[in-house]
Amino acid sequence: MASWLHAVVRMVIPLLLLAQGGTWTLQTGILNIGQEGALLLSAFFGVLGNHLFGSWIMGILFAVGIALLYNLLFGLFCVTLRANIWVVGMTLNIMADAGAILLMKSIFGVKGGFRSDRMVPMPILEFSSLPEWLAPYCNGYSLAAWLTLIFVLFCWYVDSRTVFGMRLKAAGENEEALEAAGISVSRLRYATLLVNSLAVGLAGAFLSTSYLFGFTQGMSAGRGWMAVGAVIFGGGSMKWMLGAVLLFGLAQAGGNQLQALGVPSYYALMLPYILVILSLVVRQWVKKRG
Amino acid sequence: MRWIAERVQRHRESLMVLGSFAASLLVGGGIFALYGVHPLEAYGHMLSGALGDTDALVATLSRMVPIALATLSIAVAFNGGMWNIGAEGQLYLGAFAAAWVGLTLPGLPGMMLLPLGLAAGIGAAALWAWIPGILSLKRGLNVVVLTIMLNSLAIYFTSALATGPYAGTRVSSGATDRIPEAMRFMHLSNFSTLNTGIFVALVAVACMALVMLCTVPGYDWRICRLNTRFARYGGVDVVRRQIWAMLLSGAFAGLAGSLLVMGDHYRFRVGISPGYTWTGMILAMMVAYHPLGGMAAAFVYAVMSSGALEMELMTDVPVEVVEIILGTAVLFVTAGFALSNRWANRLRED
């Protein structure tokens, strides 16, 4: 049971971070579809910072830094210039993919993947004073898991209990009303993009310095898109987004389990995608009826 | 002076695209300078590597075929307001379907195998595009997320087939056996995979460009993208038009896949497309979905990426710089249109 829980948590962390960040930007009316590219670049910069300074903290800082730059660029086009999000988001995704390979070739002189002995993995937390029956369930998670938990609780609090949270939703639902009340919608949007960069940066660093150790080409493997799926599934609501993330995380962990049981890997890899599609169809169907 | 101003106004969009491309070449020059390479030297290697002699030119043309089809596939869908991000999966499914025909019916004569292979490739891909199309138009699901998920599904599924039941016996793993000779498009030279399939591609592209530029559906698609409500008000059957945009987009992706199997490799293999449709997406967006502009962009990309191999060899600048340069061009075009719309609105308000 405990190992199963660990597997699910490891799958859920990056999805949850990305989906939480994306839910906030969606609340202000910006569907952030650049997540996949941002995640990949962050994963690369996580490795870069970690390798250069031999410290996982620098890894996270580098990852957050590049995510910030990426999201600012996204904001410049989609918030300030009001350009089409699909065009900008897809272009940035494709450029991020090429950019990560270009940087890997130029900086490390390797193709395909990179890892080094100087890298230090993110710490894994162990609590020594826990009762014995609880310990296996609470120990052994990456620091990122606890940071994710704190981040989501923080977002939930701000979202449901503060004026700021109200304004986020107002920015998405009725821009003019908010502007009339004297609040800058663009500022709110940039603020959520900033928070999103923190989440994406942490997710990227987790992916390349904790979940896996090192960077490989295309290692984001559609996680950014799955998170966008969860964001759309939630439609701005945290509750539904959480449900979707849990479902997708379970499916991914289940897929890995199937692989271990001898199901051909490609079929096992298909499972989460089928579930995402089915859940979106069902959700829409329920929405229409209700 | 007035004559010039009128000309500029009429060709505003083309000028914007050309200007953005020129600006992105400058950005590329900056990147080369960062590597300590003279920009003109780097671009020179690109040109000579792609067009320097007949062999190079043929290799460039062969590179252009799948890119051009992918670009058109994306252009048709995006131009009609359907964000078909799933062309990559459609390409894979089409490629596998074409190979499947060859592997299952090896005894048929070429007269039947050739059209059957193309039809299977195009049909399978179009069907794979129809699913998200109908779900989004009739049920209101988000087409981007759907198509992305179907991408992964199609790629994993064809990989599973090519490594499982259809794995080749006389080839290293991850590929099927060769398709029968009767259904192959002949190679036109010994040094590249340029093949007679290019004529099929040419005809398809010409027909599609004609439909997009000179017919009522072509006009309707643009209206559907620019203003769906207005289109509906004007009596356009939006759902029908958009589902056709989706089907045709899938068909072109499928054609690209079939030609890769029947013309280039003569077998299906895992990773048969190194992301042709993603490149096509950049190119289609760069020219604002104009089919002929898209073909010109595909040629430019073919030259740049084919020549980039020589450039990487001589200067150590990775080939991926081409994607970065063209991506920058798209961003410039987008910014240009956004700014000019803004200024136009402001002028009107004044």
Question: Could you describe the 3D structure shown?
Answer:
The complex is a heterodimer of chains A (about 290) and B (about 350). By secondary structure, chain A is mainly α. Chain A has a domain at about 10-120 and about 140-220. Chain A is built from 12 helices and 4 strands; from the N terminus they run ααααββαβααααβααα. In chain A, the strands form 2 sheets. Chain A has a two-stranded antiparallel ribbon with strand order 1-4. The longest helix of chain A has 27 residues, at about 185-210. Chain A is globular and about 55 Å long. Chain A starts with a helix and ends with a helix. The mean pLDDT of chain A is about 90. Chain B is mainly alpha-helical and about 350 residues long. Chain B has a single domain, classed as ABC transporter involved in vitamin B12 uptake, BtuC. Chain B has helices spanning about 1-10, 10-35, 40-50, 55-80, 85-105, 110-140, 145-165, 195-215, 215-225, 230-235, 240-265, 275-285, 290-315, 320-350. Chain B is globular, with a radius of gyration of 21 Å. Classes of the chains: A mainly alpha (about 290), B mainly alpha (about 350). At the A-B interface, α4, α10 and α12 of A face α7, α12 and α14 of B.
Mean pLDDT of chain A: 90
N/C terminus separation of chain A: 36 Å
The main pleated sheet of chain A reads as:
2 strands, antiparallel
CATH class group of chain B:
Mainly Alpha
Topology order of chain B in helix (H) and strand (E) letters: HHHHHHHHHHHHHH
The shape of chain B, in one word, is globular
What percentage of amino acids of chain B are in beta strands? under 5%
- What would the CATH topology of chain B be? ABC transporter involved in vitamin B12 uptake, BtuC
Low-confidence stretches of chain B: none
User: DSSP strand (E) fraction of chain A?
Assistant: under 5%
What is the structural class of chain B?
Answer: mainly alpha
